Amino acid sequence: MSKNSDYFVPWLKDAYSYNIDVLDMAWANPDVARLMLNENPIPPSQKIIDAVTEVCEKGNYYPDRWWNLREKIGKAYGFGAKNVFLANGSSENIDNMMRVFLRPGDEVILATPTFTLFRVRASICGGKVVEVPLRESDLQYDVDAMLAAITEKTKLIVVVNPNNPTGIFIDDDDLRRILKTGIPTCIDEAYLAYHPEVPSKVPLVKEYPNAFTSHTLSKAHGIAGMRFGYLIAQEDIIEAFEQVGLPWNLSLMNLAAGEAALEDTDHLARKVKHNNDWMKRYYKAFKDMGLKPFEPHGNYMLVDANDFGLTSQEIYDKAMEDKVAVKIIEPIHGKAGYFRITPGTDEENERCLKTMRRIFVDEATLRNSRPPNRLA
Ligand SMILES: Cc1ncc(COP(=O)(O)O)c(C=O)c1O
User: Fold this and answer.
1) What is the residue-wise DSSP string for 247-275?
2) Which is the closest atom of ligand 1 to the Cα of 160?
3) Any residues with CB less than 8 A from the CB of 5 and at least 6 apart, and which?
């Protein structure tokens, strides 16, 4: 008798999965400081909650394509409504782009480490993920190596700007070198709203028809649980996304939340300030502890703790003794002592700093692994 799995598409057995055990843990333990998921610690504004509540009254109807909102979003970037795809969070953009561009065996180039959902969703389509490590010296995009990795099977290139977890921005010249290949290229700007001073790459979509940008309101706008993202591209790419995507992919509540969050710019500014102020404090505090934080961009900071001889998993376990959850980072260039944190509420951040002092100052002294460059 055959098994059900004999009928699964063959590439599924080797595909990656995205593990969200840590989310189950966090919801089951509300006293844990969830500093591991690049979430926003500030709840949605009353304006957002009111907009969602109000639209529930029309919940008996299917949503349309919300052309007015597409128009508004497009206009903000000098584009029209037909250049905008609305997504159930930018994860849906990631899923759709794999289904638009990849056949089993086709290749996608990823500069790693980066957001692992790209690798997961490519593999679910039978795509081959070609990982090009970020440069060892500065964890910057190794564009020469990315260009050298292109084959006739390359159907997609991904650039996350700033990259998660490293926080590094790609140079414009480097990005243009990639775009000049003509290969469809996703520029993921999930975290750019934390940096109003840094220009978006959306104008490149006009210059290079193979460029498209992916955006989310999960981060600076803080509605991760309400799910809203969008894509800006030439019309042919948007049409392909519409074709592979589901109609009514966003509920009326997603749409209302997205629209209200985009309009509530005061609330956005408050969230950005909370994040960026804490980032400065964390950066200095970690340096003072002898850690090597990367300059943070977005709502996360990669920290190099390799001098302390702990693995990322050990750091996570030790922090969890105080109910502080940090992000475990896969080894980078063979080094296993990195971790990533996202600012939480004031109380959670104070707790996290205390925890880190325990691990990297008090206990490090006991372990006699105190690095010589500590300032305080
Ligand atoms: C680079 C990047 N892109 C996209 C996402 C997905 O965001 P969402 O699906 O919540 O919009 C994340 C989430 O962490 C991310 O880090």
Assistant:
1) TT-S-HHHHHHHHHHHH-HHHHHHHHHHH
2) 1
3) 13
Assigned fold of 4-41+266-367: Aspartate Aminotransferase, domain 1 (3.90.1150)
The residues lining ligand 1, judged by C-beta closer than 6 Å to any ligand atom, are 38, 89-91, 115, 160, 164, 188, 190, 216, 218, 224, 229
**Residue 87 C-alpha to ligand 1 middle, in angstroms?**
12
In this structure, CATH architecture of domain 46-264: 3-Layer(aba) Sandwich (3.40)
Give pLDDT tens digits for 252-300. Answer: 999 999 999 999 999 999 999 999 999 999 999 999 999 999 999 999 9
**Residue in 94, 159, 218, 329 to alter for ligand 1 test, most ligand atoms within 8 A of Cβ:** 218
